[in-house]
Amino acid sequence: MNIIKVKDTEMGGKEAFKLMKADIENGAKVLGLATGSSPITLYNEMTSSDLDFSNMTSVNLDEYVGLKPDNEQSYHYFMKEHLFNKKPFKNSYVPDGSNPDAEAATKAYDKIIEENPIDLQILGIGRNGHIGFNEPGSPLDGTTRKVGLTESTIEANTRFFEDEKDVPRFAYSMGIGSIMKAKKIILLAYGEAKADAIAATVDGPVTEDCPASALQNHPDVTLIIDEAAASKLK
Ligand code: F6R
């Protein structure tokens, strides 16, 4: 794994954008995207750049089950607010959280991923090492699935909702196996709360206990992290 240490989230966004730009110049056409706070500075770099994404495709990692795309807490909405309204892509895919039929929704998404192989995947990481919504215990070779969110993830996400009881308990998430098929991966992590997860990802064994540790087996992963997130590395 390559590790780039940055001063703050602003610099992280700039470093990630540089790598993304080079990848696009080298022919990348499909970006795998994440929501959450970690990629926001990267999305700001994208929206303020002169890059044109209208010939490109984006495939997002996950969506809450039970939220319609126009729900302000949905990941569809987040992506429009932070990126797509300002920089439209030719096609932008996010799992259909409004489809209660998990089998149909996840199969449809796997087909989308198969038809649009991801050139560059952007990831954040949960405090417990989750990537996408693949919580500890998730199969390291999994495809898109309906997943239950752990208490720690629900607690971390409460900040986006009025009340903890409003936080959805399930999500549709790309599996770790699908994430691993991306040609290149950039993982962004900032702050002390991520230090244990980053240490387990880089220095720990490859184990379902820390889903991001699977990235040790990927040939092209770059971690962009600040000093606090790097503080427990060996
Ligand atoms: C979001 C996602 C999650 C987040 C992770 C970190 O699409 O897949 O794995 O990347 O929960 O979230 P932040 O960046 O808010 O700390």
TrEMBL record:
It catalyses: alpha-D-glucosamine 6-phosphate + H2O = beta-D-fructose 6-phosphate + NH4(+). The keyword Hydrolase applies. Residues 22-218 form the Glucosamine/galactosamine-6-phosphate isomerase domain. Its EC number is 3.5.99.6. One of its GO terms (molecular function) is identical protein binding. It comes from the Bacteria. It is an enzyme of class 3 (hydrolase). Belongs to the glucosamine/galactosamine-6-phosphate isomerase family. NagB subfamily. Pathway: Amino-sugar metabolism; N-acetylneuraminate degradation; D-fructose 6-phosphate from N-acetylneuraminate: step 5/5. The active site is at residues 62, 128, 130, 135. SUPFAM superfamilies: NagB/RpiA/CoA transferase-like. Keywords: Carbohydrate metabolism, Hydrolase, Isomerase. This is Glucosamine-6-phosphate deaminase. Catalyzes the reversible isomerization-deamination of glucosamine 6-phosphate (GlcN6P) to form fructose 6-phosphate (Fru6P) and ammonium ion. GO terms for biological process: carbohydrate metabolic process; glucosamine catabolic process; N-acetylglucosamine catabolic process; N-acetylneuraminate catabolic process.
